[in-house]
Design brief:
CATH superfamily: Zn peptidases
Shape: globular
Order of helices and strands: HHEEEHHEHHEHEHEEEHEH
Structural class: alpha/beta
Number of domains: 1
CATH topology: Aminopeptidase
Number of helices: 10
Strand content: 15-25%
Radius of gyration: 19 Å
Strand order of the largest sheet: 1-2-4-3-5-10-6-9
CATH architecture: 3-Layer(aba) Sandwich
Largest sheet: 8 strands, mixed
Number of strands: 10
Length: 313
């Protein structure tokens, strides 16, 4: 695992002083389009039209930020039945976390139909398309969507999903949110966060392997174990460091840490779902390929669903 380090001052801003409009504009000017949401995501979603209902739930009007308009889509099973449990799968809350997006798409492509007989399946493959295209954690306003699933959200990406669920009166019974922990968390994103907020940065030990983040106020350990067991058939589970921690948090069990998700505005805290978990894949591992990372995300979702077939019966 990558050792924790204290890093030098970030390239933007003054150490100890939070960013203002000028620093945020300077940061935004450095961001560049590096891949295509239309080609990588929208084209695949279009291919699901035969078997699934596809709804545009919002669009991000980012022309004013030098970007473009991004239509946002949800994929759901056609035979929606309010008597069945509802499972929400989200990807790309942090757009740079590639296997989260492609794991959600792969799940739809290969697994979702077989589970639709028991569940209402609702998948949001890429919540943050600007972040996907620029390989970025934040929105153009330097806001972290995965701290923004709150009332009066500062991130349209988060607000749009919550608004859709509220308007449609959808109350998920379970929610699996697909993420990655990467080496760039230490080399770029945590230093940028510290600079933005005017605080001192201390990097994490980055775990080598897959782990989960649960809700500390409703942990559901048997559910988390089922997800980890499923993923362990595909890739290795991260081991805790010498302090018994993953990313600076004490483990609740091997491969699992937890936080108060609603208080922190995390995506899995957006509803009152009984069963929630956030996946964390490590794509920079020498022991895992990009394809294995995608498969691990799919295994996390199917492991959750297999458990829920009994738990929610």
């Amino acid at each position: 695992m990558t050792e924790a380090t204290h890093t030098a001052a970030y390239k933007i801003g003054t150490p100890g002083k939070p960013w203002g409009a000028q620093e945020k504009a300077e940061w935004l000017a450095e961001q560049k389009i590096q891949r295509s949401y239309a080609d990588d995501v929208l084209q695949k979603i279009k291919g699901f039209e035969k078997d699934f209902s596809i709804e545009q739930y919002a669009s991000l009007e980012y022309e004013q930020h030098g970007a473009k308009r991004y239509p946002l889509f949800i994929v759901k099973n056609r035979d929606w039945d309010n008597k069945k449990p509802t499972v929400l799968v989200t990807g790309g809350v942090h757009g740079y976390e590639t296997s989260g997006v492609h794991g959600a798409l792969r799940f739809i492509e290969t697994q979702a139909l077989q589970y639709a007989k028991d569940f209402n399946i609702l998948v949001v493959p890429c919540i943050s398309p600007w972040g996907y295209e620029t390989i970025n954690r934040w929105t153009p306003l330097a806001v972290d969507p995965n701290r923004s699933f709150v009332v009066d959200s500062p991130a349209e990406e988060a607000a749009s999903v919550m608004a859709y669920l509220a308007i449609k009166d959808i109350k998920p019974d379970a929610h699996i949110d697909l993420h990655e922990t990467t080496d760039t968390d230490n080399s770029e994103f945590r230093p940028a966060l510290a600079a933005r907020d005017g605080i001192t940065n201390s990097n994490w030990n980055i775990p080598d392997g897959f782990y989960l983040v649960g809700d500390s106020e409703n942990l559901q350990p048997e559910f988390q174990k089922a997800v980890l067991q499923s993923v362990s058939q595909v890739t290795h589970i991260a081991e805790a460091d010498e302090q018994g921690q993953l990313i600076g948090a004490k483990t609740d069990m091997p491969g699992l840490i937890s936080f108060p998700t609603k208080k922190l505005g995390l995506c899995i805290g957006l509803s009152d779902a009984a069963y929630v978990t956030t996946t964390e894949v490590y794509p920079d591992s020498a022991k895992a390929t990009a394809e294995e990372c995608i498969q691990a995300q799919v295994a996390a979702v199917t492991g959750a669903l297999n458990f829920l077939q009994t738990a929610l019966r």
